[in-house]
Amino acid sequence: MNNVLVRRPAQTLIAVALLSLVAGALLPGFFNPATGVPGAVDPALPSTPALTITSTLATEKEWPHWIEASGEIAPWQEAVIGATTGGSRLLELGAEVGDRVRKDQLLARFDDETLRAEVAELKAGVAQARATLREAESNRERALAMGRISALSEQEIQQHVTRAETARAQLESAQARLASRELQLSHTVVTAPDDGVISARTATLGSVSQGGQELFRLIRQSRLEWRGELTAQQVVRVVPGQAVTLHLPDKTTVVARIRKIAPSMDDQSRLAMVFADLSAESAAKAGMYVSGTIALEAAPALVVPAQSVVIRDGRSFVFRVDEGAGDARVIQQRVEVGRRYGGEAEIISGLAAGDRVAVQGAGFLTDRDFVRLARSDDEVGKQ
């Protein structure tokens, strides 16, 4: 009985010793003395790079502020040229749509034969009325002279005076009718009221005109203007004389200059209109609806390549590169992005000048990835 009791403690000691040996062999794999955390991996240990990327530094640049707006390109002033007299047949057309014309250049001519005959008749009537007036005035002077010697009665003298006044009135009436017909005759020739370009033509050769009928539309001096629509916050930042870059449908741009600003906002749209003059040599056409960029004062901006900005779940991030030779680690950094211009993006918050960020390959990275750095963009630019 005593022999059995003595053996059991010995067997227990042997089992404990074996367990200690096993634990000593396994614990180093689950306990990292550098971190003090069981199972942790030393971040300084080498890892295989996930990707080869390029990088660059966030830099400060002078960027202009600008305003984006849209509006119609329209004639500065468009003159409506119409027929003044009615009942005449259109005999000649001197301009087509798109023609550049000079002031007083012939645009249309109507049949004037009837009016010329009427003018000739009225001229003869004027000559007759003038002769009648001369005779009446001569008789009045004789009657007045005879009245001074009491050779004629007062009634006869008054009759001669009245005939002279009547003859004068008849002459003036004939002259007025003649002037009216001569004016109508001059209106049979339609000329350009100013230099410009013909924008529309409704006249038809051989048609009979009606008074007030539209024949042509003329863009005066070939001047076009951009009528941009700005919000209340935008309009207070612009002044006459500022340049506007207009983006045409063919991907080209033209520069206009603000001439004036509307004094009030539109009651319906709550937008204010600015009027900017285009050069006559521009490729813009009346009726185009284009966007415009109004450049304001310049201000410092922290910028990175637009390719560095990655959007995930509606938020903007960049990958900041920890400095180091060869391989490095990237840190996903949330940023607030402002303006974009010329392939670059403005960083409002989240980065500092001099921070290095990933450029090519940024869209494939995740937080704390190991990467291999190719030659950085700023190093390439220095060579």
Topology diagram in text:
Elements: H1 2-26, E1 31-32, E2 37-38, E3 51-53, E4 55-57, E5 59-75, E6 78-82, E7 90-93, E8 100-101, E9 106-110, H2 113-148, H3 154-186, E10 189-191, E11 196-201, E12 214-220, E13 224-230, H4 232-235, E14 243-247, E15 253-261, E16 272-278, E17 289-305, E18 310-312, E19 315-321, E20 327-334, E21 336-341, E22 344-349, E23 356-358, E24 370-373, H5 377-382
Parallel strand pairs: 3-24
Antiparallel strand pairs: 1-2, 4-23, 5-13, 5-17, 6-12, 7-9, 8-11, 9-10, 11-12, 13-16, 14-15, 14-17, 15-16, 17-22, 18-19, 19-20, 20-24, 21-22
Helix pairs in contact: 2-3
Q: Count the DSSP helices.
A: 5
CATH class of the largest domain: Mainly Beta
Task: Give the number of DSSP strands.
Answer: 24
| N- and C-termini, Cα separation | 94 Å
How many domain regions? 4
User: Order of strands in the sheet with the most strands?
Assistant: 5-13-16-15-14-17
Structural class computed from helices and strand pairing: alpha+beta
Q: What global shape is seen?
A: rod-shaped
CATH topology (level 3) name of the largest domain: conserved putative lor/sdh protein from methanococcus maripaludis s2 fold
Mean pLDDT: 85
- By CATH, the architecture of the largest domain is named Beta Barrel
What are the salient characteristics of this protein?
conserved putative lor/sdh protein from methanococcus maripaludis s2 fold, Elongation Factor Tu (Ef-tu), domain 3, 383 residues, 5 helices, alpha+beta
